[in-house]
Amino acid sequence: ADVIPKQGKQAPWQVTNNYLEDRKSLKNAKFDDGVLRFHKHSEVTTRKPKLVS
To answer: Residues of 20-29 as b/e, b for ≥16 C-beta within 10 angstroms?
Structure first.
């Protein structure tokens, strides 16, 4: 029940594997569905990566 489908028969779950088609369909797509939250990063981090040997 908590799983999002990876592909379906209809948009937005239809995977075309075609850059031009995806670009055309995403140009006017509405991403604000009232659930997802979009925000910019306000903090720049300069943390060094943890090295694992």
So the answer is: eeeeeeeeee
Whole-number Å distance between alpha carbons of 42 and 39? 9
Could you give the CA distance from residue 5 to residue 15 in angstroms, rounded to a whole number?
11
Handedness of CA 40, 44, 46, 47 (dihedral sign): negative
What pTM did the predictor assign?
0.41
Q: Could you check whether the bond before residue 5 is cis, i.e. omega within 30 degrees of 0?
A: no
Confidence of residue 19 (pLDDT cuts 50, 70, 90): very high
SS3 of 4-26: CCCCCCCCCCCCCCCHHHHHHHH
CA distance 31 to 17: 20
